[in-house]
């Protein structure tokens, strides 16, 4: 069993060395909330206008929702006939967003967050290419992401992503109050209320980008830490914890190791000697930081 475990460990180490695991982890885990923010924003902007049009023409999907709620959560759904728009068809005319048209404003607002997100990913990839990191188990990769979150370019792009969600409700309320007929104002407010949960999801994902907390210590940039190899589960490559969370676990392991318990730090390094060496290097760098 021991020989089999060693063989499995060797095979696991080989494929990790062959694959650009740092790039995979960066795109799948570290950038995940960027994708979530863009998708949430797209759903919010589209559903606001689509739901408003449905309510204006008395088209309700409540019957369909109730049907599937009963079927999936009760196990039985009564046969239902759903009639849309009193049996009349809804014609959507061809429309172009042209200067002087209100749709131009919506197009500009809709593209604020995706363009800022694209710029953010571009900044991340440029910095990553300059770092030249291959393995997501290297201390250099952990240090790269910790430094990245605190960088001015990263923070600027994230703040630019927040502009759209701030401007959207302002435009919506101004349009509702000053440029919408009385009989449609209530519909707009009703749609705005129903889309609130999508806005909450969007704000949570943006908060994840803005509120990323990483260790702020000079020891993370010392040569011993940058050259170190930190053991990580292969499952964390695509769907595991981010380096910010990983850093909290590592800090906890270093703290307990400093007080004589190396068991937690041993989870990150191959043997006890390397654990002591990493602890001593970080301790020395931390001491120099406080001088």
UniProtKB/TrEMBL annotation:
Name of the protein in question: Uncharacterized protein
Regions crossing the membrane: 23-44, 106-126, 153-174, 186-207
UniProt superkingdom: Eukaryota
Taxon lineage: Eukaryota, Sar, Alveolata, Dinophyceae, Peridiniales
Keyword Transmembrane helix: yes
Keywords attached to this entry: Membrane, Transmembrane, Transmembrane helix
């Amino acid at each position: 069993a021991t020989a089999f475990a060693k063989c499995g460990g060797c095979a696991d180490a080989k494929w990790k060395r062959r694959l650009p695991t740092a790039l995979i982890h960066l795109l799948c885990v570290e950038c995940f909330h960027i994708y979530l923010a863009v998708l949430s924003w797209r759903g919010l902007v589209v559903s606001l206008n689509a739901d408003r049009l449905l309510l204006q023409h008395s088209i309700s999907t409540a019957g369909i929702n109730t049907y599937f709620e009963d079927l999936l959560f009760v196990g039985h759904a009564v046969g239902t006939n759903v009639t849309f728009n009193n049996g009349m068809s809804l014609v959507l005319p061809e429309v172009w967003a042209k200067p002087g048209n209100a749709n131009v404003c919506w197009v500009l607002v809709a593209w604020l967050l995706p363009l800022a997100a694209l710029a953010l990913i571009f900044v991340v990839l440029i910095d990553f290419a300059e770092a030249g990191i291959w393995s997501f188990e290297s201390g250099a990769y952990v240090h790269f992401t910790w430094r990245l979150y605190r960088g001015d370019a990263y923070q600027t792009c994230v703040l630019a992503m927040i502009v759209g969600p701030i401007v959207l409700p302002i435009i919506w309320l101004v349009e509702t109050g000053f440029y919408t007929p009385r009989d449609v104002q209530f519909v707009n407010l009703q749609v705005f209320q129903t889309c609130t949960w999508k806005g909450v999801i969007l704000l949570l994902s943006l908060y994840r980008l803005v509120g990323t907390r990483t260790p702020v210590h000079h020891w993370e940039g010392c040569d011993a830490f940058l050259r170190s190899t930190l053991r990580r589960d292969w499952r964390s490559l695509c769907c595991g914890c981010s380096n910010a969370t990983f850093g909290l676990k590592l800090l906890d392991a270093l703290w307990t190791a400093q007080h004589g318990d190396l068991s937690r730090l041993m989870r990150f390094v191959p043997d006890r000697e390397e654990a002591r060496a990493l602890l001593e290097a970080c301790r020395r760098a931390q001491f120099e930081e406080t001088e």
